[in-house]
Amino acid sequence: MTKQVKIEADKIHILNIRTLRGNIDCPIDANIDNVYGHVFGFDLKTALQSQDNMVGLKLQVDIEAIDEANEKLPITGSYTHEIIFKIDNLDDFIEKENGGEWIDARLGSTLVTIIYSTVRGIIYSRTQGTSLGIVILPVIAPLKLMGFDELPNVQEEKEIISDANAKLVRKTKKAAKTNK
User: Fold this and answer.
1) Among residues 54, 76, 79, 49, which one has the least CA distance to residue 65?
2) CATH at 19
């Protein structure tokens, strides 16, 4: 993308937040007192409706409880949430090429940050008092959720943004595993 448009928070609107799925599985004989931490898996999907200035993000978070020795316990959870955004100046962040449309990685990263932090709060409140224990999602880089292993340095930023544009709409599935 040749132009560098500033992302303005007041032009980003959350139209809808939905919990699509949420469950916790715990065998009757599992000892919930052994829950020491959690291992996470993430799956991010995106949808773009540029004619209506709308972007949808769906984030699935898979949770596995671990004990103090980092051994997995048979206690698991999975939550899927969707947020629909309306961006007043979405056209400024769209790149069109070969019949496809892509969102600029800077805007994509901003939207991913919003959904991730929102989902962190939802999962935190929903897991209190459950067999999983209180679950706090770790702080991770939004680009990692978008499919990148590390953040770019200043020299690589243009190439990374170009790559992210292609990945953001087509494939943003990444199983990022993080220990608490």
Assistant:
1) 76
2) 3.10.420.10
